[in-house]
Amino acid sequence: MAEKTVRVQQIGSPIRREASQRQTLVGLKLNKMHRIATLPDTPSVRGMIAKVHHLVRVIDDAA
């Protein structure tokens, strides 16, 4: 059975944000505008998405 994944896209700029939010975007492999990353759907990744929810968009939950 395939591992569940989640696709996220960066829609907000990290300029003038706290350093921890910028580092979270880098941890999510999103450090440039409109970049899309496919990540494993784990509680830690969901927590990182929740921390920068105003800067990212979840494209889809299924894979």
Give a brief description.
The protein is of the alpha+beta class. It is built from two helices and three strands, in the order E-H-E-H-E. Helix content is 29%, strand content 25%.
Structure description:
- Part of the 50S ribosomal subunit.
- Keywords: Ribonucleoprotein, Ribosomal protein.
- InterPro entries: Ribo_uL30_ferredoxin-like_sf, Ribosomal_uL30_bac-type, Ribosomal_uL30_ferredoxin-like.
- With 63 residues, the chain is α+β, with helices and mostly antiparallel strands.
- It has a three-stranded antiparallel sheet, with no helix packed on it.
- The model has no long low-confidence stretch (mean pLDDT 93).
If you average the pLDDT, what whole number results?
93
Number of helices: 2
Q: Which ranges are low-confidence, i.e. pLDDT below 50, for 5 or more consecutive residues?
A: none
Rg is: 11 Å
The proportion of residues forming helix, as a percent range, comes to: 25-40%
Question: In whole angstroms, how far apart are the ends?
Answer: 11 Å
What's the total count of β strands? 3
Question: In sequence order, what are the helices and strands, one letter per element?
Answer: EHEHE
Largest sheet: 3 strands, antiparallel
Strand content: 25-35%
Outline, from the CA principal axes?
A: globular
Q: Strand order, biggest sheet?
A: 2-1-3
Structural class: alpha+beta
